[in-house]
Every structure is written in C-alpha cells, then in structure tokens.
From TrEMBL:
<dbReference type="InterPro" id="IPR037817">
    <property type="entry name" value="TAF7"/>
</dbReference>
<protein>
    <recommendedName>
        <fullName>TAFII55 protein conserved region domain-containing protein</fullName>
    </recommendedName>
</protein>
<dbReference type="GO" id="GO:0005669">
    <property type="term" value="C:transcription factor TFIID complex"/>
</dbReference>
<dbReference type="GO" id="GO:0016251">
    <property type="term" value="F:RNA polymerase II general transcription initiation factor activity"/>
</dbReference>
<feature type="domain" description="TAFII55 protein conserved region">
    <location>
        <begin position="1"/>
        <end position="96"/>
    </location>
</feature>
<dbReference type="InterPro" id="IPR006751">
    <property type="entry name" value="TAFII55_prot_cons_reg"/>
</dbReference>
<keyword id="KW-0539">Nucleus</keyword>
<keyword id="KW-0805">Transcription regulation</keyword>
<dbReference type="Pfam" id="PF04658">
    <property type="entry name" value="TAFII55_N"/>
</dbReference>
<comment type="similarity">
    <text>Belongs to the TAF7 family.</text>
</comment>
<dbReference type="GO" id="GO:0051123">
    <property type="term" value="P:RNA polymerase II preinitiation complex assembly"/>
</dbReference>
<keyword id="KW-0804">Transcription</keyword>
Amino acid sequence: MIGNKSFPASLLDLPTVVESYKTYDDSFLVKAADIGQMVMVREDVDPAPEEVEYKHGLTPPMRDARRRRYRREPDLNAELVHRVEKDLISIMHGVSVIPNA
C-alpha cells in the first residue's frame, strides 16, 4: 500500500540466486545479500501468475536461464568413458597410446 492505494503483488522465485553488492567508498564492493525471490507488482486487471517461479530472471540475458543452465546431462557409454580415462592415464605416464582401428 502506497498512500491510500493498494496494489496486487505476488512473491516469485528467481531461476538462479542473484548476488547483491554495495560500496561505501566507490572503489571496493562488499557483498550485501543473495537474492532468490522478487515481489512482482501488477495492475488490478492483470491475473495473478499461476507459477511460483519467474523463469526469465531479472535481465534479458537471463531469459530461460534454468533451461539453458541446468540441461540434462548427456547419456555416455560407460565403456567408452573407461577406455578414454585409461588412455589419458597412460599418456600422463608417458606411454604412447595406439588408437583402436
């Protein structure tokens, strides 16, 4: 409420934690807080959001941040990973590795 007017608002989770900094002397930054939620004020005619997470963050580069940043890990062949790991250890010990044809 500001003055006599009230505004509808919603508390939304941000897709990632945002670090907030402040300065006392315009040269050194001090971390002030980790921000994980925001209050979104809307017009009276706008409906309340159905989701509790605001998926686009605070700035344009954060558009779809959760989808881009936390992608599903690719399925890897365990045998291939083991063979590459063995080859890397051999290379580190100075043994030449002959690739399988």
